[in-house]
Amino acid sequence: MLVLGGTGDAVKFVQQFVSRCPQVEVITSLAGRTAQPQNLQGKVRIGGFGGVPGLAEYLVATGIDFVVDLTHPCAGQIKQNAFLACQIACVPYLLFCRPAWEPDPTDRWIPVDCLEAVPSALPSTAQRVFLTTGRQNLAPFQNLPHLWFLIRSVDPPTIDIPNSEVILDRGPFTLEEELALLQEHRIDTIVTKNSGGDATYAKIVAARQLNLPVVIVQRPPLPPAPLVTTLEAALDQVVSFFRGDCSNSYTRKTDRAPGH
Ligand code: NAP
Prior knowledge:
260 residues; 12 strands; single chain; binds NADP nicotinamide-adenine-dinucleotide phosphate; six-stranded parallel beta sheet
C-alpha cells in the first residue's frame, strides 16, 4: 500500500493500519517539505514522483495494490495527480479529507480562493498580522512594509519577510496558548488556510473570543474519487480491501482482465 502523507493524519493512519494488517507492506510518501518529519511506521520515501506519469510508473514498478491519500486538504496538485496516476495504473485510490472548518455566526471570516488574494483582502484596520499559512507560502507577503507579521511555521521560512517575527512550532495548540500568543503580540488580524481538524482549530476559537478578523484561504477542489472524512472510515475501507472482503467496491489486481 502506498500512503500519500505529510500530515499527522497519515502518521495516525499508518500506525493503526499496521497494527490491524501487519502482513501488508506500507510505504509512506512525503514531499520532503519538513526537515524532521514525524516518526512513521513502515517504509518512507521522500520527494516528488515527477507528475502524473512519474507516479503511474512508480505504482506499476513498485507493485502497489492500493493508494490512500492522506495529504493535507490544501495540497491540491498531488491529489489530482494521484487520482489520474491510479487510473492509468489501474490501482484503487481512496481519498481522505477531513471536513473544513465552518464559521460561527459571530465569526469575522474573510474567505479567499488562494494565497495571492490575501494581501488585497486584508481589512483596512490590519497592522499586526498572524500568518499561519506555511513557510513556503510567504511570497505574497514580501512587499507589505506597512504591516508587521508574526509567522508561525514548523521549519524556518524559505524567504525573508521584513517587519516580522518567526516562531517555530508544531501543533496541536491549546486555546489558552493561542489567546496568550495573540494578546502578547497585539495581533489584530489572522491569516490561515481552512485546514480543518482539531490540531490548529484553537486559533479560530481564539479569534472568535477576541473578535478578530480571519482571512481564510479556501481549499482547492478535490478529484472525483472515493472520499472518506474520518480516519476510522479510511481504515475500515483499506483493511477490508486487504482482507479481501467481497463487500468492498474496489477491484483487486487479480480481478482485473488480462492486460490491465
Ligand atoms: P501540492 O501542491 O499538492 O503538490 C506539489 C507537488 O509536490 C506534487 O505535484 C508532487 O510532486 C509533490 N508532492 C506533494 N505531496 C507529496 C507526497 N506526499 N509525496 C510525494 N510527492 C508529493 O502539495 P503542497 O501543498 O506543496 O504540500 C506538500 C506536502 O506537504 C503534501 O504532502 C502535504 O500533505 C503536506 N502539507 C501541505 C500543507 C499545505 O498547506 N499545502 C500543510 C501541511 C502539510 P511531483 O509532481 O513531482 O510528484
